[in-house]
Each structure stands twice: as structure tokens, then as C-alpha cells.
Design a protein that fits this description.
The chain has about 240 residues and is α/β, with parallel strands linked by helices. Helix content is about 40%, strand content about 10%. It has two domains: about 150 residues, no CATH class; about 45 residues, no CATH class. A five-stranded mixed beta sheet has the order 1-3-2-4-5, with helices on one face. The N and C termini lie far apart (about 80 Å).
């Protein structure tokens, strides 16, 4: 009898866990037990059809939670069946997570969220939640002119020129070079070498400006850079004795 009850209880537990997982529309990660906890909640917003933020942001969220002590929540664009669908610009699952966000990291493109999701995002913005915006987040929103949220739209030209991207982040979307996703020029060997030299030179100049202390920290965190720094400094920018 007890054995049967234990089996039944196990089955109920598995069923409940399955229902919970099925109903979950976001990824929530907490710091590991016994680790130093910050007590801060990082909310990451994914939603673009080009750069796979639905793959990148969960990885970033895991690093922030497991190594740095943050609670992290990743929100996704969802399809009608509840699966992740970056092309559904109207969707943001579990937007209530924005109500408790201490910082927002976004990787968005041309979103057209519901009033409920936008109201929560707008409230977070207006209460001064810090925001880190990645890549196409300069044109995160694409609402029609008649929408109550048109001030956020990337192409707003009257009431809030350039929308959220221009007014908050510093720029909206301008243009693609050439024909989008079609035109490009392969790098020729000489140009490749020039670009590499310019890149190394710029990195060295930046380190020279920052000073030896910052360079020491970089080498401690990334030991593989030590040889590169010594070598490139000797070749291109012998700025320090």
C-alpha cells in the first residue's frame, strides 16, 4: 500500500513539474546555493529575427547568475503555440518580470508589443531602470503613427524624432550599406593585413591611454593576452618603457 502511494506521489510530482515547465514562457536563473548573492534582478529582453538573441541572452544570463550572483530572467517572443518565435514582433512572454527589474539588457529589433508589455517597459524606463542596449536595439520598436506608443518608434519624425533609439540610446536606424543581405565585398589579402594592423594599433593605443594598471588587470583575467601585448607593443606601439 505504501509502495503504491509512493509511486502515485512520484507520478503526481512529475506531472506537476511537466505542467510548470510547459506553462513557463521565460527563463529564470538564480545564483547557486552558497554563492555570494547581489540581490539584484537582471531582465534580458530577446526579440530579433537576425542575430539570434534568443540563443545569446540565455548564455549571458547564465554567466550573470552562476558566476556573479544575479537573479536573471530572459524574456522571449513567442509563437501561438508557446514556442520561441523571434519573428513574432508583437509578443513578449512574462512581461511582468519588468516590474522588478533592477537593470534591463535588451537585444531587440522592430518590436510591436502589446499595450500590457509596453506599459511595463515604459514604467521601467520612467522609474530610471538602467538599460544596456545591444546591436539593433537602436531600432527596437516599430509602431504605426496612430499608436499610443509611437514615441518609441524608430521612424518617429514629429513627436519624438528617432524614437527610443535616438532619444535614449543616441541614434536610430539609418541605413544598410548596399543591398541588405546581398551585397558585400570580399576582403582582399592586403586589406585584411591593413585592417589587422589598424585593429592591433587601436587596441594598443587604448591600453596606453588607460595605463599599466588596467593592462595588468587584463593580463590577470586573460593570460593568453600577455604574449600578444608584449609582441604587438614591440612591433607597432612601443609607447611604454
Amino acid at each position: 500500500m505504501l509502495c503504491h502511494a509512493a509511486r502515485l506521489l512520484a507520478l503526481v510530482s512529475v506531472f506537476a513539474a511537466t505542467l510548470t515547465a510547459a506553462a513557463q514562457n521565460s527563463l529564470v536563473l538564480n545564483p547557486p546555493a552558497g554563492s555570494k548573492v547581489t540581490g539584484k534582478h537582471v531582465v534580458l529582453l530577446s526579440g530579433d529575427e537576425e542575430y539570434r538573441s534568443e540563443e545569446a541572452l540565455p548564455m549571458l544570463a547564465k554567466i550573470l547568475s552562476q558566476r556573479h550572483g544575479f537573479k536573471t530572467t530572459v524574456l522571449f517572443s513567442l509563437g501561438a503555440d508557446g514556442t520561441i518565435d523571434p519573428a513574432n514582433g508583437k509578443s513578449l512572454g512574462d512581461s511582468e518580470a519588468l516590474d522588478t527589474a533592477d537593470i534591463i539588457i535588451m537585444s531587440l529589433r522592430f518590436r510591436l508589443w502589446t499595450d500590457e508589455a509596453m506599459a511595463r517597459f515604459d514604467a521601467a524606463y520612467r522609474r530610471g531602470v538602467p538599460m544596456i542596449a545591444l546591436r539593433t536595439s537602436t531600432h527596437a520598436f516599430n509602431f504605426p503613427a496612430a499608436s499610443k506608443w509611437s514615441d518609441y518608434s524608430w521612424n518617429n519624425k514629429i513627436t519624438n524624432p528617432g524614437g527610443f533609439g535616438n532619444q535614449v540610446l543616441g541614434e536610430t536606424w539609418i541605413s544598410h550599406w548596399g543591398k541588405h543581405k546581398i551585397e558585400a565585398e570580399p576582403l582582399k589579402p592586403f586589406r585584411t593585413i591593413v585592417l589587422i594592423i589598424v585593429f592591433i594599433g587601436a587596441a594598443q593605443l587604448q591600453m596606453a591611454v588607460r595605463g599599466p594598471h588596467e593592462e595588468k588587470i587584463m593580463v590577470e583575467q586573460f593570460p593568453q593576452l600577455k604574449e600578444y601585448i608584449v609582441r604587438s607593443e614591440k612591433w607597432y606601439f612601443p609607447v611604454r618603457k
